[in-house]
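REQUEST FORM: STRUCTURE PREDICTION
Request ID: SP-0412
Submitted by: Lab K.M.
Chain count: 1
Length (residues): 180
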Amino acid sequence: MEIGYKEFIKEAQEHQKGKVCQKCKEHKLLSEFSKHKNHKDGLEYRCKSCAKEYRDNMCPFKKWFMKKKFNAKKAGIEFTIEPEDIPGVKIEWYNTRKQGSRDTWRAIEYPKVCPVLKVELDWGMNGRQPNSPSLDRVNPKLGYIPGNVMILSMLANAMKQNATPEQKRTEARYYLFGNK
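STATUS: Completed
RESULT:
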């Protein structure tokens, strides 16, 4: 099928409004890329569909950790921990490309059970559920710093945050001995 000169020019101009995705190597319209203020062209290197595929296949712990780091920064809370600073977490480093690009990591061990309530932690990122993992600051006056963090369930962290030690003792006595 032959196209006319005007159509050819229009198609060429549209082609120039796009870029090649670094992952799938396809030329796509600029609208197919998310914004990124630190990149030269102001756009992500991967198209939206490749970025979604990357996020969907990312280690659940890494996804959770990155979100915690982002939220702490946004809230102005100190966050100097690395994943290995959290008790029970072990990571491995690996290259994402064959020709020695930057290294990245994935968790090979991370807590699956809340140490306080002994319930299984749901790493499925299903919102703020009672058994969702929560990054607890042992001393809430300090930030997310080495030696001051542990992973609990949301429920255990909420109980810790909202009750005084005396209220916790009273509740424990009630459940152990009844209303006596």
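NOTES: The radius of gyration is 24 Å.
Reviewed by: T.R.
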